[in-house]
Structures are given as structure tokens and as C-alpha cells.
Request: fold
Amino acid sequence: MVEAWLIAPIMAVVSILAGFYIHDFVKKQDAGTEKMQFVAGAIKEGARAFLNRMYKTLAYFVIGMAIVLLVFLPVPIWSTPNIMDNIVLAVGYVFGSICSGIAGWMGMDVATDANLRAASAARKGISKSFPIAFRGGAVMGTSVIGLALLGVSIIYGLTGDPNVILGFSFGASALALFAKAGGGIFTKTADIGADLVGKVEFDLDEDDPRNPAVIADNVGDNVGDVAGMGADLFDSYVASMMAVTVLGSVLGGYLVELPLVYAGLGAIASLIGIFAVNVKEGQDPGVVLNRGTYVTVGLFLVLSYAANMMLGYNIRFWYAAAVGLIAGVIIGFTGDYFTDINKTPAKLTAESSVTGAAVNIITGFSYGLYSTFPPMVGVGLAAWISYVVTAPLGPGYGVYGIGIAAFGMLSIVGIVVANDSFGPIGDNAKGIAEQGGLDHETIHILDKMDAAGNTSKAITKGFAIGAAGLTVISILATFKEVAEVTLGTEVIFDLMNPLVMLGALIGVAMPAVFSAQLMLGVGRNAERMIEEVRRQFREIPGLIEGKEGVRPEYGKCVDIATAGALKELLPATVTAIVVTLLVGFIFGIEALGGYLAGCIFSGLVFALLMSNAGGLWDNAKKYVEDGHLGGKGSDAHHAAVIGDTVGDPFKDTAGPSLNTLITVIGLVANVFLPLILMYAIF
Amino acid sequence: MVEAWLIAPIMAVVSILAGFYIHDFVKKQDAGTEKMQFVAGAIKEGARAFLNRMYKTLAYFVIGMAIVLLVFLPVPIWSTPNIMDNIVLAVGYVFGSICSGIAGWMGMDVATDANLRAASAARKGISKSFPIAFRGGAVMGTSVIGLALLGVSIIYGLTGDPNVILGFSFGASALALFAKAGGGIFTKTADIGADLVGKVEFDLDEDDPRNPAVIADNVGDNVGDVAGMGADLFDSYVASMMAVTVLGSVLGGYLVELPLVYAGLGAIASLIGIFAVNVKEGQDPGVVLNRGTYVTVGLFLVLSYAANMMLGYNIRFWYAAAVGLIAGVIIGFTGDYFTDINKTPAKLTAESSVTGAAVNIITGFSYGLYSTFPPMVGVGLAAWISYVVTAPLGPGYGVYGIGIAAFGMLSIVGIVVANDSFGPIGDNAKGIAEQGGLDHETIHILDKMDAAGNTSKAITKGFAIGAAGLTVISILATFKEVAEVTLGTEVIFDLMNPLVMLGALIGVAMPAVFSAQLMLGVGRNAERMIEEVRRQFREIPGLIEGKEGVRPEYGKCVDIATAGALKELLPATVTAIVVTLLVGFIFGIEALGGYLAGCIFSGLVFALLMSNAGGLWDNAKKYVEDGHLGGKGSDAHHAAVIGDTVGDPFKDTAGPSLNTLITVIGLVANVFLPLILMYAIF
Reply:
């Protein structure tokens, strides 16, 4: 019998080919007017320039870390029995970084082609425009699946060593964290700059071509939302695969190949889901997007059940995967309640704007706090149920079950990323249409797509956070498992052990510190951007009056956002890695276990709080802009805009980076575990 | 030899007498002009009315809970071997509620006499006014020490049963939580109402007598800050004593009386510290307040060392107490850095106001996030060091050491509460002086006292949070200890046990939910208040013009704040208790242990974040008002006022209630432990 796990590399290649096919389809579409092409060209150029410069900067970090790994891990080079282990680990790490980088690049490149074509096609109706935007975004999804599965399969096929998959995962995650932080700072620098000067001081509309920061803002959507989110889910996807593989390798049997089989089936389900999504004229694109998700979930459950039967896997693993997947969907949809423009929280937050910005912020923040409860309970229940379901198989099977639940959640990553990337493409398409001077009808169609994108984004964000939660719980389990195997004794993270408690207390504070660093970075950088935008309005004659032929210097704003993001992205990330290592090397593995748990706890809470409060403020503002409570230009609107601006770095910089942060911290701990066991002080 | 622990009841009586003596001293001072007396009378009347109505409402809760305890605990009445146990526990619970209530009442009553006299004496200089304000506040401190120590001593003397002290502590804490939540909602309802209409819409100064909400605002300072903070520290003080007593009773020997001896010595040190604080003309009152704290800390360390030698206690316990105390001081002072008006965070936050309210809020919030790190590490290190110091004495001694560290921190509770109550009295005195039309010179003196009060408040808040952190860790330890004794097996809160993880994930979300409920309560109530203030300005002829003899209807605003606070304080608190019981009865004690730890983690982080960000926004606003960045009335000032208003419920409602919340949750778990062991589902 052919080895079942080969479905993973096969589907990896199919996914990558599907990406190329879609790219080809997108490129064939009509590229609109010259004016539109100019705007789209500027966006594409800015996005590529940023990604190039970021990757160049990160290359130093990757090389430095690769050398550290080469010299010290898994065993210091001077005492290693087999130097090949060190080389393979370092190579695996670099390979992970590269795969993650390529996936981000591919997805973003198609997105910046699709935005123009979607804008152009919108002139002929939503049924023409939607497939371009959605499939354009889907390439980010197929790239994630393709490169992640291909990378893991190659390593598994060549070495069969879970430790190398760990190195691969660490490479992918560290790069994801940088990409997420850098993209998040870029996008919000540009957004705040464009809003506070353009909208508030000069009363321009969103995407007005006179605004010097408008191109930077559009670029930000691509580097922050498309490439950043892709990197984020790439990271969770690979990390959860790593965790299950490590846990499975301890147990033996088919448990190592099982996640690869499920991953391959998830890829099939996602691809079918992606191609099944289509909008007819007059249909609500939001409903269609959700239907695509349901189809994929259903398909995956059927396919994996069938595979389970055919391959003789124990049905309990399928239960665990189903628990995770269903929990992910439920968490995603409850998150939607707290941000949806038609639900109570958004409406009450909008209404509170009448009393001023302060009450708007207090109300939105409070609902953000509320919104943490259901997903935290959901993650906890999913972990517990998947444990209970698989634990009867023997010791070690319970935590393996948690890993499978995480992986089940992430199996449909293709459609999740596709849904998510649809948002910024629709947003960009609208920007291009506005700046290209398209008619009102067309812009209204793109508006509807933009709104659908926002809703599906809220759902996928909840999904991403839930998946990250379960994934890092599994990473904590692998940490313990590997420590036990290495030490040959039981390791317990007992909360009453004061070292565990100390670690947990430090860990709980870490996501807060990380968020603070990113947000202060945005604040500092936004001030520079604001100065530059004001300068251009002051010094470029005829700009604000909209004189024919006068254009702002878009490139300078892109440069400021780029330089600032690159300057600010390293300190926060490096701090997090260094503190993790300090805790481990000073206080030992029990403290480090507590620290990881603490990071997970507060990382999830802050991620949910910030993402949901941010989304809520955004929609409360939109509710006012839709004409309620005095509409645009009213006092309530001004208050709601302040809330929305506070929410910007919450939901697009700090919040979504926290998923990746906790994964990276978990992987750092796992990668450096052998050294910590040797050299920890306490 | 006389029993050493008797120093506790003796010092309790001495403290209470000192309180009466001070009250007498305060009452003898000049009570100022008739206009001042009218204002002060209105404040006193409003404060008494609120406290009376709150206590009446709470009486139902206390009676209900007492019946529950009587019927079910420690053993259900139908199967109890000794019904007296149930009766004594219920009585202890009611007694704790009453002691906490009386302490709050006494402290607040003196405070509302001292504010008027301090205002009046300020006309003769700061050296006359300061002692009145400070000693007036000190009565809250002596009342806390006196009633807490007396209550615990009586129970210890009569029953010698730590379980009854647990009941007493539960009673005190539950009442404290209500008082803190109720007072916090009252004070911020009034404050926001007074600010947003009076200051922002009608450009009135702070404490302008034409503002209908001004008296309610002054009342709020007393019920929120004096009575609320007193109740908060009463609760931590008793809870930490309870924890050490329970842990000590398991170990036997002098370990049960040791905390009582330390408490008595702490009372001596605090009383001396209180009377040593005096300000000469031209001296900075802030410096004097801090000196009082140092004197008390030094004295306590010397006295307790001497007692340790004389009574032959192991020196390791003294080390543990010293670790806790010193950690408390350090945590307090690092907290000060993040809020002090002359330090970088406040200045940068003020400067960011130039870019608008949104950037002000992002910056302040970010520094608030940063500020969580040092105290979390501090609490963790204090717990770990005190454990390491005492653990060599044998099993069970390590966690006892953590309890002693918590108690060491709280030994100087008298001076801490005194420092803290000084703030609102100075604030009130200034309000009375403004409304009484005193001269500029006098108001300037009171301004300086107000500023000193704000600084010392920042320090004591950090102190209170640190102490609560260590206390709840000890409560978690008693929970485990009692569970082990009852079950006769080892109980481990292993983070890799999915029930512990589930509990922790739910627990982490709980403080967020609680904060949200309180802050939404403030928001809702503030809207009512704003309507009422606007109505009065609209409907009372001559009010806004300041026509002689026209007075706003102060009482109506006090009524709105009262009614709203009473309506909002129950749901949040009851939810927290119910969720705790649900977790315990459904998922069992391991989940409940994880849940407690989760509550501690996020409770501390959110308490620090909210208290410090709130204080920071307040001082950033003051920095602008001092004439920087355009001064009062500038755009930067408007932005800073919005930040300050967001910070109001952060720092005065939700933030400081969280200490109490986590203590109450810990005590609920401990009190209901026997039932949970019998009836839990999983």
C-alpha cells in the first residue's frame, strides 16, 4: 500500500499549482483605466519595496539565529556526538523562514494584482468583481497550505526527525512575528496619518487621492493584512503540526503520519471550498463567504471520517479533530457578535458616542473585555473534551488529542486565509476606484464587498486566536514531554511550586509589554507621518484645492512608514525572545513552563480584547456614518472617529501579533530546551 | 509568661482609642465660615445617606449568605455531627461583615469632619492644615487595624478555630467588594457627570458651586476613596491573616500566634508613624508622607526582629516578613514612576495629546501595559524568595513563608491607609474652599496637599495590589492545604491537567468580565447624571449666570449616583461568586485551583494596568493644565481631558475593585470547599 501521508506533499503541490492557475486567471482580467493602473502600480511598488526591505533586514536576524542554532543546538558543537544534527536543525530553521517568506510574498503579489482587476470588474457588477477579489485572496491561502505542507513533508520524508520540524516551525514563526509586527506598525502608521490629518484636519474622504498618505494606507492593507495574516496562520499551522508530530513520535505507530493525512484532506476541502464560493447579482457576499466556510468544514469532516475508516485510525482521533474544528467555528461566530454592526455592542457603543469620545471608549473597551469570556471558555472546553476523548487510549494520548484538536481547527486554514485576504483586497479595490474616479454605482458595489470582508475578518480573527490558543497548549505539552524524555523523570508544572508561579507571573506580563512596545512604536511613527502629511499640504501648491495635475509625494509617506516599521519591529520581538531565554536559563524549566502558561493566558485575553474592541469601535463609527445619531460630521461622529483611531493599533497591530508572539515564545522554549536543561541556574 | 498574641487585641483597642482621640482633636478645630459649613454639611449628609442605603441593601445579601452558610457549611445541617460549627461559621461571617462596615463608617465619618477643618486651617498655613487632613485620614487606618485585629482576636480567643476566621474574612471581603464596587460606581458617575457637562460644556472650573454634580463628586471621594480603600485593605489584611493562620494551624506550634504578634507590632509601628508625620511651613508634604512610611517600615522591622529574638521564633519567618514588606515598598515606588507628573511616561503622554485624544489614549494605555511588568516580577520574586527562605524548615513551611511575606507587606496597613485617605480629604478640603469662596492663597496651599495626596495614592495603590497578589497566592495555598487534609491525598494544580487548564482559562477571563460590568455600569449611570445636570442648567433660572442665592439641586445628583450605584453593584459581584461556584461544582477542585490562579494572574495585570494608566492620564492632564503645551483650553488640553475621563473608571472603579475581587473569589472557594468536595460533578 502506498504510504498515506504522501497525500500531504501531493496536495501541497496541487495547492501551489492552483495558486499559479488563479494568478493567471486574475492577470487575464481587464486592468481598468490608466489612472487606476497608476494607483495600483504605486500600491504594488510600495508593497514590494516594503517586503523587500523587511526581508533584507530580517535576513541578518535569520543568519544570526541560524549560527546560534548551529553552534549550540540540539547539543553544543564541542560536545555533540553528531554534528549533522546541528547542521540539519539550522538548515531546517532557515528553510522555515524562507518558506514563510515566500508564502507571504506570493499571496501579497497576487493580492496587489487582484485589487485593480476587482475594481475594474465592479463596473460590470458584483458577480464579475467578487470572484476576482476572492480568488485573488485565496492565493494567500493556497500558498500557506502549499509551502507549509511541502516544507514539513520534505523534512519528514528526508529526516523523519520531529526536532527538525521544530526548527522549521521556529523559523516560520519567528519570521511571522516580525512580518506581523512590521506590517502592523506600517499599516497603522499610514492609516492614522491619513485619517488624522486628511480626514479630521482637512475633511477629506477616505481614499481621497489628494491625501499624501493614501497610497501608504493602501499598501498597509496588503503588507499588514494579507501578508501578515498569511504569515500568522502559516505559523500556527506549522506549529500545530510540529506539536502533534512530536507528541505522536513519542507514542509511535501511525500517530506521526495522521496529522499529515488530515492536513492533506484539509487542503482538498479548502480548495473545493474556495472554488465553490461564487456570488450572483443581488446576493449578499457575506452570506456566501460563510457558506464557503461551512462547505469546507463539512467536507473535511466527511473526508477525514472516511480516511479514518479506510486507514484504520482510532475513531477517537477523529472526534478530537472534530471538537477542535467545531470549537473554532463557534468561537469565530461568537466573536462576530461583539463586533457586528447590527448587534447590540456596536449599537450601544455608537450611541454612547453622543456623550463624547471618553464614554465611547469606555463602552467599547468594556465590550471588548466581555468578549474574551466565550472564547476562553471555548478553548478550555475544546482542550478538555479532546483530552477526555483520547485519554482512555493510554498515557500521553490525552495531550496528543489536544494537539489533534488544534490541528483540526487549522485543517481548513486554506479557506480561512482566503476569507481573510478577501477583506483587504476589497478595501484596496475600493481605494483604487475612488482614486481612479469611478462612478458612484461601482463604488457602492465595492463598499458592499468591503463590508462583507470586515465581517468575515472578525470571524477568521476569532478563529485564528482560538487555533493559536490550542496550538500553544500543545506546544506547552511538547515542552513537558521532551523535558521528561530528556531528564528521564516526571516534570510537573504545579501552580503551587513558587518557581512555576514566578514564571507564570512574569509570563502574564509579557504580552502586555510586547503590546505596549508595538503600540508606542505606532504612536511615534504616526507622529512623523502626521508631520509629513501636514508639510505636504502646506508646501505643495494647489494640492489641497485639487488642481489638475498636482499630485502629493506618495513615496515619501511610504518611506516613512517603511523606515519606522523596520526600526520598531526588532526591539519588541527580540525583547520577548530574550526574556523567555532569561527566565529559562535563570529559573529553570519549571519556571519556563509556568511562564509559557502565563503568556498563553494573557496573550489570549489581550488578543481577544484588542481585536474585538478595535473591530467594535470601527463598526460603531460606520454605524454613525451610515446616518445614525447625526451621521457624518456630527459630534457623535467625531467621538466615534477617536474611538476608531484608538482601536486601529489595537486590532491591527498589537492584537493579532499576540497569537504569533505566544507561539514563538513556546517554540523558543522548545528549541532551547536542551541547553536550558544543561545550564539553568536554579 | 503572658501569652504573646494578646498584643494583638491590646493594640486593637489602643488603635480604636487613638481613632477616637483623633476624632476629638479634629472636631475641636475651627469649622470655618457658614458657607463652608453648608458645603461640608451637604457632603457629610450625602456620604452618610449613601453608606446607609448601601448597607441596608447589603444586609439582605449578608443575611441570605449567612443562611446558606448555616444550612450547608462546613457540613450540611442534615448530616453535621455538630450543629454549633455551622452556627459559629455563620456568626463569624456576619461578624466580619459588621466589622468591615463599622470600620468604613468610622473612617468616613471622621474624613467628612476633617475636610472642613483642614480647609479652614489652610487659611493659617500648611503646617496648621496638614495635620488635620492627615490625622483625619489616619482614623480610617486605625479603624482598619482596630476592628480587624479585634475581630480576629475575639474569634481566635473564643474558638481557636481557623475555619471561623475564614468565615470572618469572607464576610469582611464580600462586604468590601460591594463597598468598593458601589463606591467606585458612585464616585465616577458623579465625577464624569460634573466634568463632562460642567467643565466641558459650560467651561466651569473644578468644584464650581454652580455645578449641580459638585457635591455628589465630593461625596464620591469619601465613599469611593476613603471608605472603599479602607474596606479594600481591611479585606486584604484579614484575608492574609486568615491564610497564615490556616497554614500555621496545620503546622502547629507558635505558627498560629506569630501573625497576631506581628500584627500587633505593625499596629505600634503604624501609630508611631502616624503621629510622627508633620509638615513645617514650606516643606513638601509629599516628602513628609513618604518619610512617615519609611519610619513605619523601619520601626516594624526592628520591633519584629526584637520580638522574634525574645519569643524564640525562627529567624527565617522574620526574613519572609521583611521580604514581603520591602517588596511592597519597592512595588509601590516603581508604580509611582509610571504615574508621576515629572517622569517620562506622564510627560510623553501629555505631549502626545498635541496629536489628539486618540494618540493620548494609545500612549497612556501603552505605558499602563508596561507598568504591569515590574510589580508582577516583584510579586513573583517575593513569593519565591519567601518560600525558599522558609522551605528548609520542612514540608508546608514554604507556603507558610509566602503567607508571612503577604502579611509582612500588610503589617504597616495603618500608615498605608492613612496616606491613602489623606488624598480625598485634601481633595475635598480644596472643594470646600473653592465653594466657600476662600482666597487664592489658601486654595494654593490645598492644591499642594491635593497633589501630594495623588502621589502618595499612586504608591499605596501599588502597595495594595502587591499585597493582594501575595495574599491570594496564600489563599490558593490554603485551598490546596485544606483540600489535601480533607481528602487525605495530595492535590496538585498541574497546568498540564486539562481541568486545571480549563479552570485557568475561565479564571483569566473573569476579572475582564467583572471590570466590564462595573465600567458599563458607570457609563449607564453617567448618562443619567449628564441628563440631570443639563436639565438643571436649562431649567433653573440664573444658575449658570451665578445669580446670588440661586443654588442647584445638589441632592438630586446625589440621589442619581446613589440609586445607580446600588443598582449596578450587585450583578457584577454576584456573577463573580456564581461563576466561581459553578466552576467548582461542575469541574471540581482541580479546575477551581486553576481558576483561582487564572483570576490572580489577570486580576493583577488588569488592576495594575487600569490603576496606572488612569493615574497617568490624570497627571498628563494636570501637566497640560500647569501651562505646558498650550495649557488650559488648548486642543492638547481637550485631548488630555478625554484621556483623563477614560481613566476615571479605570483607576477608581474597575482597577481597585479587582484586588478585592480576587480575594473574594479565593475565599468563596475556600469557604465552599467542603461542599464542592462532596458534590462536584467531575
In short: Chain A touches chain B through 79 residues (CB under 8 Å).
